[in-house]
């Protein structure tokens, strides 16, 4: 009799891939968020911490968009790239193109994000009351993350990986592209950023971007380390 046919391994659905990624990041993400929460508590309770963070906020006020662009370029672009370069299994195929993309993309996103935070402060106010924080978290995790942040990151990295070929990018944007490309990364991002936004929206406006970038840098480094020994992939970092 003919040998039995071997069926190809089934690709996980986008939701299943997202759930697996959530399982990978849940514990380390919790540690990052606890550290960020401790920083916020220290800001309000420990004068020396409050003074140090106030100086950081003053830098943000003084330099505006330049500060907002430079900070994520380093925390979300340069530092994770350096770690990837140190891990042969995760070293980019085109390191310098990858670095240039990361620096430019995260600089642009820094300007977008700080403008979004200021818009939320204009709409809801800049006092970190529970109601104001909850409204900002809801807008951030739905309107911004679902419509701008996650799809923007995924498509930016996909276009880079396709060699900046617009025709090839359009081919990937066939019906269902959001479910295939964005959803697997949306779920683990929510695990970090829903509580993360609640933490940094509890701070004054000029400190929200720096603390968000501190969380983002730790999150990026965790993504790299987790990817080194699991099937986890983040469109923000490892596409």
Which short descriptors sum up this protein?
disordered C terminus, single chain, globular, 239 residues, 0% strand, mainly alpha, 7 helices
What would you say this structure looks like, in words?
By secondary structure, the chain is mostly helical. It is built from 7 helices and no strands. The protein has helices spanning 14-45, 47-86, 95-124, 130-161, 166-172, 177-200, 205-227. Helix 2 packs antiparallel against helix 3 (95-124) and helix 2 (47-86) runs parallel beside helix 7. It starts with 13 loop residues before the first helix and ends in a 12-residue tail after the last helix. The model is unreliable at 229-239 (pLDDT under 50).
The tally of beta strands, per DSSP, is 0
Strand content range: under 5%
What is the typical, i.e. mean, pLDDT? 83
Give the fraction of residues assigned to helices: over 70%
SSE string, helices as H and strands as E: HHHHHHH
Radius of gyration: 19 Å
Measured between the Cα atoms of the first and last residue, the distance is 44 Å
Structural class: mainly alpha
Number of helices: 7
Shape: globular
Largest β sheet strand count, sense and barrel closure: none
| Poorly predicted runs | 229-239
Indicate the multimeric state. single chain
In short:
With 239 residues, this protein is mainly alpha-helical. The protein has helices at 14-45, 47-86, 95-124, 130-161, 166-172, 177-200, 205-227. 36% of the residues are buried.
Protein topology:
Blueprint: H1 14-45, H2 47-86, H3 95-124, H4 130-161, H5 166-172, H6 177-200, H7 205-227
């Amino acid at each position: 009799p003919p040998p039995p046919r071997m069926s190809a391994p089934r690709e996980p659905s986008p939701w299943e891939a997202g759930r697996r990624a959530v399982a990978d990041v849940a514990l380390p993400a919790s540690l990052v968020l606890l550290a960020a929460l401790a920083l916020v508590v220290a800001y309000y309770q420990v004068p020396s911490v409050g003074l140090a963070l106030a100086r950081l906020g003053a830098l943000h006020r003084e330099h505006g968009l330049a500060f907002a662009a430079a900070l994520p370029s380093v925390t979300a672009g340069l530092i994770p790239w350096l770690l990837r370069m140190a891990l042969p299994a995760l070293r980019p195929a085109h390191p310098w193109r990858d670095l240039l993309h990361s620096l430019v993309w995260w600089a642009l996103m820094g300007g977008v994000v700080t403008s979004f935070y200021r818009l939320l402060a204009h709409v809801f106010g800049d006092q970190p009351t529970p109601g104001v924080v909850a409204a900002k978290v809801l807008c951030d995790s739905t309107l911004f993350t679902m419509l701008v942040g996650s799809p923007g990151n995924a498509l930016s990295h996909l276009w880079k990986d396709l060699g900046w070929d617009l025709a090839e990018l359009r081919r990937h944007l066939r019906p269902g592209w959001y479910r295939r490309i964005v959803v697997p990364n949306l779920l683990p991002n929510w695990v970090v950023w829903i509580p993360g936004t609640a933490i940094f929206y509890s701070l004054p406006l000029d400190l929200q971007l720096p603390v968000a970038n501190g969380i983002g840098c730790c999150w990026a480094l965790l993504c790299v380390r987790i990817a080194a020994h699991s099937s986890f992939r983040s469109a923000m970092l490892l596409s």
